[in-house]
Amino acid sequence: MNNNLYYDVVIIGGGASGILTAIKIKSKFKQLSVAIVEGNDRIGKKLLLTGNGKCNLTNKNISPDNYITGNKAFLKTVLNQISYKELLRYFENFGLICKFDKEFRAYPFSEAASSVLDCFRLELERLKVDVITNSKIIDIHKKNKGFSVRTSDKKFFCNSLVIACGGKAAPKTGSDGYLFDVLFENFNLNIITPYPVLTGVNVFEEKILKALHGVRAKACVKLFINDKFINSRFGEVQFRKDAVSGICVFDLSKYVSEYLTFNTINRHNCLGTLKLVFDFFPDITIDHLFSIIKKRIKLYPECSIDNIFSSVINKKLSCEIIKASKIKPNTVCSTIPFDKLRTLVSNFKNFSLSPSDTDSFLSAQATAGGIDCKEINPLTMMSDKIKNLYAVGEVLDVAGDCGGYNLHFAFISALICAKNFKYKD
């Protein structure tokens, strides 16, 4: 049996960006032989998990502000080439119909990631793209005018190579980051140290987290370093015994993780103390909230202070904020001094926790860091160092917020690569 396989184009990775690159290149150059080489037993494994299994494909509010990268100019150039409307029109060409929710997130009409993968598979079959699974990459080398790609039992030779293997997040889906070392050692590509993003944030106040385990509450969450405001998000906060999570925290985790990895925020050097501040009443001023609480105390002067707040916020949460304000939860409310009561009310809008770490790649939804975008042409996605070597998707140093931003980048980087792909015999 001949284990040496020859293709015009080999794409490493059968995720969102790899699949779409293959589809677009093959539809443009029908005469070319194109193969996807995937380490898992099937393609699209991670795609099936996105959007809680519903597959959040893109977002109406695509902006560079929703991403973190070491090269904003690269990101802006990529994002400006293909809009979310153009992306969805392209999907419609092979039957993938989408709809938006009230937060402007696009999903397949079926609300099932499996239907997205089914559409992609059908198109791959129609175009006769070879999909080779259970083929984990061991090594890659430049060979003459092309490339050699070695797996445990096969060797591929190709004229053009597309790296679409993802980052290090969710390694159970096959993204283990192994190729970063290979790309650095064999091709001298600069690799920005990968770090986990869109994940839970661990804090130093472990005792408080254990008490709040299982509590969910809406809040505006702000991130500060040395009292300097970094960014904020609104949404449901989920308290676990070991971390704070929820989409709003996930979005802020990219700054926390970056700082803990590099001592930078948005790739600018800074030193200080991180702080997450939770406003559980973002639509009510301190004065208004104080007025409401005073009225309740007047109505129930013998009531304990924890019961005064129980009608407006989760009782476990109110007890922890009360204790953090140096007040016992069973204190009779009418005995609390005015200034201390005012401070307590303020703390419901300024409850702070100190990040110590983030969850690991095991539970992270995305990877920041990766191939340095300064070495990739944003108009073609080809390496500036190695001719006919391309990189698309999460393997690049670009990471977005929750809400379809990472899949959007994966898809449009694939389409840009294929659209501007040039092949010469």
Number of strands: 23
Tell me the number of helical segments per DSSP (H or I, 4 or more residues long).
Answer: 12
Q: Please report which band the strand proportion falls in: under 5%, 5-15%, 15-25%, 25-35%, 35-45% or over 45%.
A: 25-35%
Shape: elongated
What's this model, at a glance?
The protein is α+β, with helices and mostly antiparallel strands. The chain has helices at residues 16-28, 72-81, 84-92, 113-127, 178-187, 206-212, 247-262, 286-299, 305-309, 315-324, 338-347, 405-419, and strands at 4-12, 34-37, 58-59, 67-69, 98-100, 105-108, 130-132, 137-143, 146-151, 155-163, 191-197, 201-203, 216-225, 228-239, 244-245, 264-265, 268-269, 274-279, 351-353, 355-358, 366-371, 389-391, 398-400. It contains twelve helices and 23 strands.
Summarize the topology.
Blueprint: E1 4-12, H1 16-28, E2 34-37, E3 58-59, E4 67-69, H2 72-81, H3 84-92, E5 98-100, E6 105-108, H4 113-127, E7 130-132, E8 137-143, E9 146-151, E10 155-163, H5 178-187, E11 191-197, E12 201-203, H6 206-212, E13 216-225, E14 228-239, E15 244-245, H7 247-262, E16 264-265, E17 268-269, E18 274-279, H8 286-299, H9 305-309, H10 315-324, H11 338-347, E19 351-353, E20 355-358, E21 366-371, E22 389-391, E23 398-400, H12 405-419
